Amino acid sequence: MKIKDLKNYGVLPYVLDIWKENYSPCLLPIQEEAVRNYGILDCGEEKERRMQYAPTEGNDRREDACNDRNKNNLLVIAPPSSGKSFLGEMAAAAHLIHQKKCIYLSPFRFYAEEKYSHFKDLYSTCGLETIISTRNRKENDSRIIRGDYKLAVMDCEKFNYFLLFYPEFLSDVSLVIIDEMQIIDDPRWGPLLEEIIDLLLKKELTNLRIIALSALIENQDTLLKWFPAHPLISYPQPVEMRKGVVREGVFKYVTADEEKDCQREVFFQPEAVRDNSFEDYLLETVKYFIRKNEPTLIFFATPAETRQWTQRLASRLESPAASSAIEELKEMEDTLSRDELLKLLEKGIAYHNPDLSWEERNLVETYLKKGEIKIVCASTKYSIGINLPFKNIIIPFDKVHNNDGNYLHNHRTGLTCADIQNMGRRAGNENFGRIIFLAYSQLSETIHQNTYFNFTGNTKHKRKTSIKRLVKEEEGLLTYLLRLTVKYRLKPKEIKEYLKGGAARLSGYWQFSFKQENIEEKISKYLNVLKGNKLIREIKGGVLFPTTNGLQVTAIKIKVETYLFLKYWMRYCKKGDISELEILLLLAFSADGRVLPVPFSQFYKNDKHRENYRNKLLHLIFKQGDEDKKLYRDKIILKKVQEKFIPLEDYLAFKKTCLLYDWIQRDKDINIIEQENGLYGGAVQVLGEGFSWLADSLMEIAENEGWRKGREEDLNKIKLLSERLIDGVEEEGLNLSLLHIPGLSRDYIGRLVGAGYGDGKFLKEASEEKLNKILPKRLVSRIQKRMNEEKDIQKATKQKLIVEDEKLIA
């Protein structure tokens, strides 16, 4: 089916023109099936959706499970690059054409930003306004609450917040698209997504349709049984995928057609490598692809490993330099990663991980597409966000890291077959792609063969999996009890039975496991704590019910321990006497602040400079004359340290406080902050965003405690700190930061403020010639584009007000 044929399904010509310009003229198989048999373009309440239910695997089992209320929900399971993302876009366009409201739900903030930019760039020309709402993007929240939008892109955390605090916001929404549904298997994000779906289904909104888009998922049958929707499952790859193992220079592979025998391709001669040398195998394989001019992606477990291996490869490779990329990178902000990339790009190689700034990541992606960069090393955790034109995917190891660096609690877990399939599906061009395992020893060959290679035949006949419930070992019993009370209406006895494994009716996709020693006594104790702090109350029949405060703690997604710690500080802090440093230290010592990750040396105990952060804090405290404040005296000045060295958790809290205090000042450039703290700018930004969320939480709790009347100055200080932490700017640069212009970082904002452009009004009036003297041309173009958007928004708003006034007069 061709895209132009979609006019028969009610898609307007100008939308079809956008699709033809930006996508293939023909629909991919899964897209055509969704149109013909699954009503992806249907949105009217007055007619039945065209659900013909083609004989896709699983439909026979799921059709009976879909009751009348959920009969229109759709679950699409397909590998990356199969075209499923466009299905969500098609469905959204159809609903918007018929004046319906849509929400596009993305799992992560960075991915929500990408989707927002995508919709805005493609559809703003035809009058479709897209808005965004994430934990860091609050400018459109009031519009979402009052329903003044058509298409909203949100992340899971923010969507959950609205579901709990403003449940009526869904009353006129006709479509919710859940992208990257496979994250429901992730122990960190999965439980949140499960709660979101449960809340959606409980609302019984008959006019709401849910379309969930998932990559291949290890627990497919479990998901099919749990999620009430019609499944559309597709395994075929649009191009031939060769999957196999490299051993002694020979790539032995199979394709999706299991009727074919194992085939061979010679990458290098056996004598070119040493046995048991992973580095030799990787180097010779990469050399082969460079000679063939084929872009290659290599996955590693952590950001640190991506940097290490790109440097090793660059030191032994002879390949053309990415000259244009180097010239552009030289104009960018001076960071540790920029200096590293400049050397790597001399060999046409780069890394892609969260340590990079947005501009640096964008540069790597841009020049990979242009063909200058041939080899990219990326961390496995961020494979969701990488949609780039690679011919080959190399998966060197069988482990994935659960964190992003050298943190307090970390471990590696095995990659599942579904992980491998999804990572590998990012390979391929118009002919074929390769998924490659390096069998650099006999043992590694056996591991790859047994674990993954045997899985790479005809997937359709090998996707039979057992129904199993995922179990997460949980330690935060106090917070879990509050969330359980929000989700269900239970009596204490029922809660005890459930946590001892006796209440199957409460079990969903995830099951939570707690240490059983004295579990009943702990439950009773913690329920009393929740009652005593007015987070839950007992209603008729002994049923436990959340209070407004309890609902707030659950909605802003903080631990109960954090809430109690912040409230305790609020009782004794003096009106008009709180400081930025004090708030940062408070947040760093909260239960949630302690677990926000920051890299640190495993040898910190032997670090002669381990007291530097404490001493720096003491210097700032005495300089500000705040040595009598209770928080400082309890946590630093009078705290007894029995050991000769500072406890690790205190050390990390001091480090976070110091580096974020520097982050929001203009005294130090980012490269100085990086060097002093031994971490990269991307990690600083992520930590700043985490503390911004905690500052937001503190502000909401303070508002609930009555600070709006009598403590407005203190409340405003917390709000400003929260906003400044996102980009690390002083108050004068906030107006520019809140424009959310891609690449307008801390350094560039400082330049504009110094040149007198701190006010957005002056920025709108600034000429291109003047801005080019301050900023790189690429950034000037983005600023001017954003300013034009602002003018269009103001013009549209003004026109809307005129129309509304005319209606009132009439």
Structure description:
This protein has 810 residues and is of the alpha/beta class. 46% of the residues lie in helices and 12% in strands. It contains 34 helices and 21 strands. The strands form 5 sheets. Strands 10-9-8-17-14-11-13-12 form an 8-stranded mixed sheet, with helices on both faces. A 7-stranded parallel sheet has the order 3-4-2-5-6-1-7. Strand 3 (130-133), helix 6 and strand 4 form a beta-alpha-beta unit. Helix 24 (612-623) packs across helix 26 (648-663) and helix 28 runs antiparallel to helix 29. The longest helix is centred in the last third of the chain and has 33 residues, at 777-809. The two termini are 49 Å apart. Residues 45-66, 403-408 and 455-463 have low confidence and may be disordered.
Structural class: alpha/beta
| Beta-strand fraction estimate | 5-15%
Strand order of the largest sheet: 10-9-8-17-14-11-13-12
How many beta strands in the DSSP annotation?
A: 21
Please summarize the sheet with the most strands: 8 strands, mixed
Kindly state the percentage of residues in helix. 40-55%
In DSSP terms, counting alpha (H) and pi (I) runs of 4 or more, how many helices?
34
Mean pLDDT: 85
Low-pLDDT residue spans: 45-66, 403-408, 455-463
